[in-house]
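U., I forgot to send this yesterday:
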Amino acid sequence: MSDIIERLEHILVDSTVKARGTSVAKRRRRNPTKPSAKWIAPARIGNEVGVALAVVLGTVGCSHARGDSGGCTMCSYLLDGDERSPTTDELLQQFDNAHSELTDETAPLSVKIYTSGSFFDTTEIPSDVRTKILARIAKDERIQEVVIESRPEYVTPDIMRETRDILGSRRIELGIGLESSNDAIRSICINKGFSLSTFKGAVANAKEYDIGIRAYVLLKPPFLTERDALLDAVKTIEDAAKLGVSTVSMNPVNIQKYTLVERLWRKEQYSPPWLWTVMSVLRDAWNKVGSSINILCDPVAAGKVRGAHNCGSCDESITSAIREFSIHQDISVFDSLDCDCMRQWHHVLNHEDISLLIHSRSRRS
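Result:
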């Protein structure tokens, strides 16, 4: 069995690298003093509702995607990076540029730091830049929560100690892409490049310094049916809660350029999840884990052909309910939702094979 899995992993890596192709060379030269993206939005901060600043620092990009494995099957965030690493001053200017968006906001505030890779990876963010950015956050007393994104292999005891020392008593969460608690799915369908045991080690290292884990859960990686994807996402959220994560952020797949998922989608061998599936995962998972953790979801490209969608008529109302649930953790927002396309979704769940998958995709497009 292990030989079969190894062969499948090799095939997946080869396919992922080919899908990425020469896309790295297509990365645009960006202004190194400006972040790749920044935005503010209402957010649940602990048990309160406040405002969150999200900043995507422009770096050289994810080491997993830059390496020989080609990165994850659904991710093209490497393209948000630059062909060269910004200097220390440039990275600090990027953060300051984003931080200025909070000038007129009041507490409680959250700051989410993304790099399209790992904030704790020193090949992306040198250690002196990391400490200076954290120190800038520490000076802003309005900021009560800090979310930092990283792969688990960079979550070491020394870095956790340093992060806690600088940020003091603030709520800290590390966003880690667990994606699935099933090692086979994470490896063969996603090409994630780490095992569940590595994730568990990161959770333990973070807990030692009272740092929470925001586990990203992927809804509908390639090669899973709609029903299998639904069940895997619910099981993963349940498993993540048992492992002691503080928050789950569920991310329905959206079709990104130069990825294996996009190749499959163009060949009509992959379809993004239904919004009904997104809703069902949130409701079923909440019923299993209750109020022990926050479950969040802000589906990218919802209602569009490249994102989670239904028939088109009900997409806006369901997406709005999903976002409302994420802020207030109230599953009753889903109670009154209905549409004729729900019957087709139930049919897909119960009878899906590859021909039905292609048919359902064309009807929803």
